[in-house]
């Protein structure tokens, strides 16, 4: 498997140009969306696929573009940062640049679509720096998993079909049509997001809201902040209150959540780079490689060397 070469303090983050081998079977000959699309029909900054030809597991890894996954039938397990969810029919999940994500346990009969795109792809409609404000489910502050009703998910799938039809042809102003249909698709999702009240700052369930905010903060700051007290301060509560809430609801401590995020990052580095164990321990801000190896084995039951060999 091709690997990226790392420099000091750089976490692997894939772009659209070097991502395909991580999510598509090399011998898949399906023709939906961008899969096996001829060079003259490709549009810069945007790709869309069906789940046919998807590899059995993806990640954990990072990308510098946005991702959206739509499930129409069956189920699949998705993890975004520390948030885990099982996709069911009508589930959509969202990934923003720099976020650690993974997908696994794709059950028989599962089918859906996924889109990969850069914010600049929709700059005809809004500036790239306003994209997350317009569509908050693509940001660290938004709800990264949503469940749409049957009519809503049908309308979303209809826009996917229109996008695919445009991609497969070379009609006048085809690029503009694809952008329009994709923007309308996102607006359809946003309507469902708003109808469910997910755009509101807080949930009525304060414990769930607190845990969600904690998980998002950990996903964003874990490389620099390892202490529970630091996250409690960000949330404006005491460390004891944060620990108690996390433990009562999830069964795990706040410290365990931080360690879990760090382990995901370590797995991505070990699996997708050729960097040395020593340099990986440096990037993850361990005091020495031995300390990193002890931590990794405590979390996974394997040494970093064994995990890399079997990845």
Automatic annotation (TrEMBL):
Keywords: DNA-binding, Transcription, Transcription regulation. GO terms for molecular function: DNA-binding transcription factor activity; sequence-specific DNA binding. The keyword Acyltransferase does not apply. Pfam families: HTH_18 (PF12833). Signal peptide: none annotated. InterPro entries: Homeodomain-like_sf, HTH-like, HTH_AraC. It comes from the Bacteria. Residues 212-310 form the HTH araC/xylS-type domain. The keyword Transport does not apply. Gene3D superfamilies: Homeodomain-like. PANTHER family: ARAC-FAMILY TRANSCRIPTIONAL REGULATOR, TRANSCRIPTIONAL REGULATORY PROTEIN. This is Helix-turn-helix domain-containing protein. It comes from Chitinophaga silvatica.
